[in-house]
Amino acid sequence: MKNLFLINFLFIIIISCQEKPSEKILKEKKKEFVWEGANIYFLLTDRFNNGDATNDVNFERTKTPGKLRGFEGGDLKGITQKIKEGYFTKLGINAIWMTPIVEQIHDATDEGTGITYAYHGYWAKDWTAIDPNFGTKEDLKELVETAHKNGIRVLLDAVINHTGPVTEKDPVWPSDWVRTSPKCEYNNYENTTSCTLVENLPDIKTDSNENVALPPQLVAKWKAEGRYEQELKELEAFFERTGHPKAPRFYIMKWLTDYITEFGIDGYRVDTVKHTEEYVWQEFKNECDYAFAEFKKNNPEKVLDENEFYLVGEVYNYVISNGKAFDFGDKKVNYFDKAFNSLINFEIKWNAKQMVAKDVFQKYDSLLNSELKGYGVLNYMTSHDDGQPFDKERQNPYKTATMLLLTPGTSQVHYGDESARSLTIDGTIGDATLRSMMNWEDINNLDDTKKILTHWQTLGQFRANHPAVGAGKHQVISEENGLVFSRVYNHDQVIIGIDMFESAINIDVSSIFKDGDLLKDTYSNQEVVVKSGKVDFISKFSIVLLEKI
After folding, report:
1. DSSP assigned state of 388
2. Which of 54, 272, 389, 436 is within CB 3.0–4.6 Å of 382 for a Cys-Cys bond?
């Protein structure tokens, strides 16, 4: 009996010393993520994928719109479906930014481009509700949780500058909330901020510190939905905690930060930044940071990492060449300090056309490590509202990927960049031509599209696996047979070659790797050993992506 006890005791000790599966997973090296090197996928919620056809029509939105100016059916469930299928992971995407999902105006309007519904999400009616065309709060919860399980962050789109247009079904908000004139002229600071962007787009009085009552249409709506008392209770708690006046901008900040505390979103892309006073964004950052800290405190099991809440601003026509400054003509404004982690960079598409890759990479490396050190830029080649994309006719999808994904900074893949989705749609007016439904049929059926997608996937995965690609220090190694350079971020080190014009690859890697190191060229999927400070191998491709195994 004594021997049996001893045997059992030893067995328990042995078992207890063995790693449990969960413990083993925790000990595995976690893939490092930094926003400065992230690969963000931007999509129009309505145009990406229709996961639930039952929510395609709501609020009697049945007028015949102009081409691509009505709801097409895309929704939150459709995005979640593609996350589950692994589409984003295969593309090397580690963050998704989707257009606003809050409840939009119920009616349509005509801005001179045909009858238009708020399919794009930028015409808010109620910030506290999700538009049923996009889905439900349960759908958003599932999307965020599914994304996080797959190592993907979620950015929503924040609009504080304006409400939706006025229609028969969507009356104008009270005059202490919005101004309806004058229209912006965009030639100085004042007539860019204290004005309406276009006709019939009421401008929120973000400059006001006056206490205002809730708009009566919201009060009536919430009462009809049975949630007025709860919304009022939450607002009172917010204003008591913050000490903010009950001014228009703070109501909206409360409503937007609720999506952080309730769903655990990871960041906001902020719309129309330069049309709103700069101190507003400093206030917004403070509230976002507080909400994110509260979410992490209350949901420790859902915390992905120690990254802060991410704010990227759309300061239309901001360019990296200007450093932290945006020039209104009569005033320069710094939107970075105390506000944004990053701004969208409207320059990269021109740099990629007018400069050789070496000069583009060196320029961005220099600026991000000097004037913009500690901050970032979000580079894009295509957008939903930029009528001059890098490759309008989709003739250079390979170069688009190479320049976007290998240039220092955060990258923004616009939905369909990776599949050469057409940006020229017959019968459309204005920016609608940029906003067609995602071309899933091409991806599934066309060999040329599949090849393009493979290129984007290979570069994207390499970028996602190595924060050094976007956030690392850039150093040219050679220009002899193409451009060869290194990127180093902390302990992450890679060597990349582009425009290689000899099949016999011979690269000096001694600045990064040592003799005997086993490397992999991810692009050709070959393993090579460093000998005499070099790697030698045959590749049929013009790109080399070297990483240590």
Report:
1. S
2. 389
